[in-house]
Please model this.
Amino acid sequence: MNVTGSEARQASIARAMRIRELVASRDPKAAAVIDRALEHFQEGRFILTVLGKAKRGKSTLVNALLGRRDDLVAPIDKLPASSVISRFVWAEQPRATVFFRSRDRAAAGAAENIPFERIREFVTEEKNPNNVKQVETVEVAGPFPDFDHDLILVDTPGAGSIHEYHDALLHAFIPQSDVILFLVTARMPIDQDELELLQQVKAADIQKVVFAINKVDRAADGDIEEAVAHNRGLLAEAGISVERLHRISALRAFQADPQDSGLDDLCGELRALLTSHKGQLLEARLRARVSEVIGPVLKGLAIEVDGLGKTAEEIASQRRELVGHREKLSRQCSAAERHFVHRWSRAIDHFAQSISTAPEEVKIKLLEQVRGTAMVGLSRLHRELPSIIGETVDEYLRPHAQRMENGLQEACRELEGGYPALELGIGPVAIGRQHDRSILLGAVGAAATAAAGAGLVAAAQVATAASVAYVTTPSLVGALLTQLIGTSAGFLSTTSVPVAAPLWVALAGPIGWTMAGMGALALPFAWTMSKARQKHQLEQEVAKQVDRLFSFLRDERLPQLRKSAESILEGFRLHAEQELEQAESALNRLVDRAGDVADRESLEALLRELNLLVNEPERPGE
Amino acid sequence: MTFQEDFLQLADHLLLLLHETAVFHEGTVELGSTLRRAWRLAAITRCRLDAAGKPHVLAVVGLGNVGKSTLVNALFEMELAPRRNGPCTAVPVEFRAASGWGLEVHYREEFSPRRVACKSLAEMHQCLNDVANDAKNANTRSIARIAVTLEHPLLRSDFVIADTPGFGAAQPGEAAGSHEKALLEYLNTHASQVFWVALADQGIGQREYAFYEQNLSAICDDVVVTGCEDWSESDSTRFTRRFSRVFGRRVPTFHFVSSTEKTGICELRGRIAQLADPTARVAIAAEALLQLSQDLGAWLAQYAQRELASTVPRWRPDSWQRFLAAPDCQGLRTSLVRHLE
Model:
């Protein structure tokens, strides 16, 4: 299966490689940065989640997509089979890892490597009923034929089964997906359960839902038409726009009969969606990082080309000017930097202050709700509590977080505008001040630029995609929460929120941070509370969860956010430094070979090509 | 008085004994709650017994699209009930015994039904279609149920089989939820016994189980699993094992059938014949009551040995005396007394 458009991405890689080649001899450091950017680009993963009610053929489809001829890695059964979420990724060596839940242990839960033959013992309802083995998730890696190297395929247990923990698992996973593949069957037109599941997908703000009607091999044509008509009507009414209802037979595909399986079409749409959405953002990010590092090189080149026509005296005077400005610059910079740090910290202080009473207020609100619930409503409340807690915390934090984000953004803008500029008398080159904001963007991976065009959540995902293997963090507070969850849920424990994350948040402006962060929040609640059925237990659990959340916010995330001011400044300084360095070495080179015409031609050619490559229009359709 | 009436009287006495003693032992949590549970179970059996003697309606109930109508057609060996891939049966359709083909359309707020005699199955179908088309126009909701009359060995004058609208189906537009409403109304007013239909391919889901808990648990002893085309014995065993654990103590019987390949249909007809016979129904209820008293007696004996001081009576003394004096019914009272003593 090729759904992530990795071929198209080759062009971006080739372009970056060419730039790297051109500058490698002039600036090895820049080449190293491009190498890293490429690495990150290639690490960017897409998450495709297969969702549906029990017995819709999800695991069969997963096997087909993986190109498996057996059901070792995604077991299939006549009865609902899957009891845990499985993740599939490409790797050269086959490997299956079971991650266990960590109830009391901090950070990651235990993990165990198992051979493929034993996967069944952990993921099936038959061998692991009600998930008694406390499996959180299973990751299966292997050299699956035709499987995209940058794809994470997620197989989920069927929703709406009698095994209620399935639902908690599912709802935690929905917000993390880039694209959801929703499976229904030809035999069963969409029912209430499926509509509710779809509403949840909608609530998680996942715009990309692909529909497939499975098991068309087991229904008469007339029946399929009736099902399609019914499904279309219902989806339209639910406000879910679907261009196509793919008709597939996962079973045929699994049995190596791809012609009639309808899978080619389906993969086509998946590919279009994945590449047009996150793929573009990843590309934008690579492009921005390359531009950022090439910027100073280009300026140095421009200076050099310009200076080739000048006399040795003129060049020497420019060198003196540069050294003089350099000292002046560092003095002015430190004033702007101090101001920035002050503004930055103040925004965070305000936030910390404004939420100092939050734990108590939120607890009171939640406990009122628990106490006000009649005994008969308890099990329902128990089920809904994770999202209730999420919503309440969300509601409380939102205005405060937005104010903080505004403050941080303001601080960044001032830094950008107030950073001292240096004008050299050489060509049209300004050094120091970043009129194109490339420093700011450089420090944060350019996600903010992309954000302007392609949706903030996605931008945020890109910002974190490189360093976060499985979880994408859509926002500042989302990041806070993801980190929180990371400590209590094993499969998220690999999450590391990059230190630079707050900056793009600050630049991109306040964003709908409830979108995914809160969805993921449901996770630890649903799990740790699975046994707390009594009212007072629920109350204790609520209090505990709220305390944990806020103490995490206060003691870990906010200090981290405070520190990130330093890394932003670091980015500014580094960039200015690089430009000065480039200018200086350009001038040095000029002193050595003034008036060399042949050299001038090759330099001009290099400058032209680099300019062309950096400013090359993006691929059509972006 | 008939056997059934005698038996009802005896069951009432037993209920009284259980209830009074439950209150009597209220301070002892374990004993009190067990007696209460026994009382509730006995009350269900009493309802069954009461219904056993009256005209009986066997309702075929299940999630949308699990193949209820297809099952009905297979049972009758003819295309009686209309079916399609989508929510279809909008009102309950009863199949009643009569000497010839016919249709009775029962309207809401209307005491006399519209009767149409038909000459053949085909004509009956035509009439059914006409009614359905009429219903689509203005007064859709006003039909309460439709009765199809026919001659068939499965049916008796006091035994009706009913196909019902599916629950849990997502219906578009204004009709949303109308099927479920029609089904519940029918269950509450007409059904005496339920065949719960589930699809083999799907198992039993939360929604279905919740519906069973709320509406069916007292009147359902049978789960019919349809679509078992390529199912082996061991598949059925696993299915039963997997899904019977949600039922707690009162596990219904699972029947595995394939409507298209006609497997299991014969056995199911046998079960229907049993339910169609009032004497058999009473016997089943009597059997259930005896079983209940036997289980309760055994539990009480153990409990008394373990917990009860010899001075504390097992039963409330005056209630027990009254129960001993209750009129017997073909030796049933003697058996009950023996179990419970």
Notes: Chain B touches chain A through 29 residues (CB under 8 Å). Chain B has a mean pLDDT of 85. Chain B is about 50% helix and 15% strand.
